[in-house]
Amino acid sequence: MREYKMRRGEHLHERIPDMEETIESYFGEITTTEEFGGSDLAVVEEPDNPVFERIVAGTVTYSSKKDTLAVEFTERDPAELSPDDMEAAGEAISMKNDFLLEATGRDAKSRRKSIKNEVQNADTPENV
Questions:
Q1: Residue 128 domain-assigned?
Q2: Beta strands of 1-128 (E only): which ranges?
Q3: Domain range holding 26?
């Protein structure tokens, strides 16, 4: 499960007031929920796009900091996909990026940079 932060000064509930409706509009019908970090996340067991096997997404609420978006995209093995399904791969990438951009206000390049900075900060000793 990967968690995404919002841009400085923005909050997830302001960017996406109805998370479940947004998830359904991008990926398909929510079939159940799954607990993560003390919050219930929406699970789409049969996503509309055949590239995805399962999607878990939602808001993780923290008492001491801003809420984050938690997402886990489970994709099918490319060997399982038919040639028609393979055409949907480009659409799947766009769908993921559009959803994450709407939720976080950050494009793919900005998200990669943020993750890279987090990893570098985690590797740096605290007393340096």
A1: no
A2: 2-4, 32-36, 39-44, 52-60, 68-75
A3: 2-123
